Amino acid sequence: MDTKWLEDFVSLAETRSFSRSAQLRHVTQPAFSRRIQALEAWAGLDLVDRSIYPTRLTPAGETFHAQALDILGGLQTTRNLMRSHQAGGADMIDFAVPHTLAFAFFPHWLLQLKRSFPAFKSRLIALNVHDAVVRLTEGHCDLLIAYHHESQPLQLASERYEMLCLGQETLAPYSRGNSEGRPLYRLPGTAAAPLPFLSYASGAYMARLVEQILKQAPQPPQLDPVYETDMAESLKAMALEGHGLAFLPASSVRKDVRARRLASAGDGWELTMEVRIYRERPEVARMVKPGAAALWDHLRSSAG
Description:
Order of helices and strands: HHHEEHEHHEHEEEHEHEHEEH
Strand content: 15-25%
Distance between the termini: 46 Å
Oligomer: single chain
Helix content: 40-55%
Number of helices: 11
Number of strands: 11
C-alpha cells in the first residue's frame, strides 16, 4: 500500500474524471490509471465503475472512500503532531527548487535577499519540476520556487496556493566559444551539416520550453541530437567541452559568457520565463512557520 494511492482515489472520487485527477495530482493519465489499478489489486475488488461516464465509484468504492478519508486525516494529524516536536527545525525555511534554479538562481537570490531581510536558516530541496510541485502540494516544504511560462503553467489551484513573481529568466542557445569568443556552433545549421544538439530529456519541463522555441523559430533548425539529460548543469558542462549547443538559462551561463567560454549560438532563438515563488494560502495551510510567513510578507511588500 502506498498512501499516494489513497490520495489519488480520493481525488478521483471528487472529480469523477481520470484526466482531471491526473492533472491535479501532477502525473500522466496512464500513470494515474495504473496507481488506481494497483489500489484495486491491493483491495482485491473493483473500486471504480468504468462502464459509465462520468466515472463513479462502485458500492465497495463508496465504502472505501470514507475509510480512505479517515486514514489520510489520521496520518495528517499524526504528521502535524510529530512536526510540533521538531523544535530544532521550527526556524528552518524549506525551499523546494528545481535543479536548474537551485544551481543558478537560488544562491544569488538568497544573497540579494539577505541585504533587505534579516538572516534566516534555509534548507534547499533540489528536485525535478514535477517532484518539486508535489513537495509543495503534499506539505513537505514551506515555499516552492519554479519557472513559469504561459505555454507550460504549473497546475496549482489559485484558491489553495498563492504566488509572487521574483524576476525573469531567458532561455537561449549557447555553444563553446572559440579563441575570438565566437560560437563553435550557430543556429540554424544546414541539412548537409546538422548541428550537434545537447537536449533535455523528453518530458522535462525545459524540454517542453525548448520545443516551444523551435516551433516558433524563423526557420527550421537542423539539429542532430547527440546527448540527452534532464539537468541543465550537465548540458552546460557538455557545451563547455565543445560537444554541441544547448539551450540554457542566462543566469547559469553569465560568468562563462563574460569569460568567453560560452557564446550565444543564435539570435531570435530565445524565450523569456518568469521565476515565481509559491506557498499554501495561510487560511488552508496545514502548517505555517512564522519565519516563512515573515519572509512572504517581505517579498510581497517588495513586489508591491
